[in-house]
Amino acid sequence: MLITTACGGPSDTGGDAASRPATSSEATSTAPSATAPSSSPTPVAGTAITTADSEFGEMLFDQPGQAIYLFDKESSGRPDCYGECATAWPPVLTTGTPQPMGAVRAELLGTVARDDGSMQVTYAGHPLYYYAHEGPGQVLCHDVVDFGGRWLVVTPEGTAAP
């Protein structure tokens, strides 16, 4: 099947983790405060996951507009796409708590540790991936069989699009 060839192959890694700039507020009191932290780290905001319309209905994208897929072979919630698979289908990684935008449901967002210790974004228990040969706004590989499973775009409900 030629569709597999069109949606497989080496490439660079998936989207970068988004972070928000830290904000600070000035103290309005001149009295010393025992509870004011002087150098506590600002929590890192993780990769932003949002929604947009596509030919498959509303689906998940990252903030720059890269389509997001699930791999139906992964039924345990653990990533199974490594090596050549992860080159063609880079995992959606994060360095902080994933950030919901659009119609993304915060309670469905999560993370799972990969074998190398990096954190992969999950949605409704599914590890999430990009397709390496798509640009922002492109959805080329929905319902494609590659690396022993089917790749499907993800709806805001956390299911595969029809």
Task: For the structure shown, list the relevant keywords.
mainly beta, seven-stranded antiparallel β-sheet, about 160 residues, disordered N terminus, three-stranded mixed β-sheet, globular
Radius of gyration: 18 Å
User: Strand share of the residues?
Assistant: 25-35%
Q: List unreliable stretches of 5+ residues.
A: 1-5, 9-38
- The helical percent reads under 10%
Quaternary organization: single chain
The total strand number stands at 10
Termini separation (Å)?
Answer: 20 Å
Class from helix and strand fractions: mainly beta
Shape verdict: globular
Largest sheet: 7 strands, antiparallel
Helical stretch tally: 2
Order of helices and strands: HEEEHEEEEEEE
Arithmetic mean of pLDDT = 82
Describe this structure in words.
With 162 residues, the protein is mainly beta. Helices cover 6% and strands 27% of the residues. It is built from 2 helices and 10 strands, in the order αβββαβββββββ. It has helices at residues 2-6, 84-88; strands at 45-52, 59-62, 69-71, 93-94, 97-100, 109-113, 119-123, 126-129, 144-146, 149-153. Strands 3, 4, 6, 7, 8, 9 and 10 form a 7-stranded antiparallel β-sheet that branches. Strands 2-1-5 form a 3-stranded mixed β-sheet, with no helix packed on it. The longest helix has 5 residues, at 2-6.
Topology, element by element:
Elements: H1 2-6, E1 45-52, E2 59-62, E3 69-71, H2 84-88, E4 93-94, E5 97-100, E6 109-113, E7 119-123, E8 126-129, E9 144-146, E10 149-153
Parallel strand pairs: 1-5
Antiparallel strand pairs: 1-2, 3-8, 3-10, 4-7, 6-7, 7-8, 9-10
